[in-house]
Amino acid sequence: MGNSNSAHKISAQDKAILDMKNQRDKLHQYQKKITVLTDREKEIAKECLARGDTKKAKLALRRKKYQESLLAKTDAQLAQLEQLTSDVEFALVQKDVLYGLQQGSSVLKEINREMGGIDHVEKLMEENAEAKAYQQEISDMLANKMSNQDEDEVEEELEALERELLPEAPTKPPVLTPQEKAENAKARARRRAEEREAEQASQPMLA
Fold first, then answer.
1. What is the spatial distance between Cα 66 and Cα 111, in angstroms, rounded to a whole number?
2. pTM of the model
3. Which residue windows are transmembrane per the record (predicted)?
C-alpha cells in the first residue's frame, strides 16, 4: 500500500514537472517571436511621434507594454511552480501546482492571440477604415488589462521617445523631486481619464 501511494505521488509530480517544462518551452518560443513584434511597435511609436500622431504612438507602446507584461507574468508564475514542484511535500501543494499550470496555459493562449503577426502590428500605422476599427479594438481591450503602473511606464517611455526625437532637448532628463513626480503621475492619470472619456464618447458615432 505504502509503495503504491509513493509511486502515485512520484507519477503526479513527474507529470506536473513535464507540463511545466512544456509551458517553459512555449514561453521561450513566444519570447523570441514577440520580441520581433515589440521592436516593430517601438519603431512605429517613433514614426508616429515624428509625424505628430501621439495617440497612435501611445497605442503602439501600450500594446508593446501589455505583451511584455504577459510574458513577465508567465515567467514569474513558472518560476514559482518550479519551486513548488521541487517541494518534498509535493502532495500538500499539488492543488496549487495544478491550478498554476491551468492559469499558465490560459495566459499562454492569450499570448498566442497576441502573436497575430507583423501584419497586425503594421495596422497601427494605417489610416483605412479596417485599420481604424482594429486600432479601436486594441485600445478597448487594453483599457481593462493594464495596471496604473503599466500606464505610467508607457507614459514615461513615450516621453523618453519624444526627447529622443527633439535634438534641442537636453540629453539627460531633469531630476524631479518626489512632489514633482507625484504631480506628474496625477497629470498622467487625468490625461488617461480624459482619453477614456473621449473614446467612450466617440463609440456611438463609430457604430
1. 10
2. 0.62
3. none
Q: Is 99 exposed, middle or buried (0-12, 13-18, 19+ CB in 10 A)?
A: exposed
Residue 206 has pLDDT above 50, yes or no: no
Give mean pLDDT, residues 118-126: 78
Q: Nine-digit cell at 179?
A: 512632489
In whole angstroms, what is the distance from residue 103 CA to residue 80 CA?
12
* Measured distance CA(191)–CA(159) in Å, rounded: 14
Looking at residue 139, its amino acid is S
Q: 150 near 65, Cβ under 8 Å? A: yes
Q: With contact defined as beta carbons under 8 Å apart, do 75 and 66 qualify?
A: no
Closest CA to 111 of 65, 67, 63: 67
pLDDT tens for 126-148 read 888 888 888 888 888 888 788 88
| 24 grid coordinates | 517553459
Question: Hey, CA dihedral for 130, 133, 139, 141, is it positive or negative?
Answer: negative
Q: Which whole-number Å values give the CA distances from 167 to 22, 57, 162, 163, in the listed order? A: 47, 19, 10, 8
Q: Domain boundaries in the chain?
A: 2-150
Residue 14 has pLDDT above 70, yes or no: yes
Burial 102-118 (b: 16+ CB within 10 A, else e): eebeebbeebeebeeee
Contact 75, 87 (CB under 8 A): no
Task: In whole angstroms, give the CA distance from residue 174 to residue 170.
Answer: 8
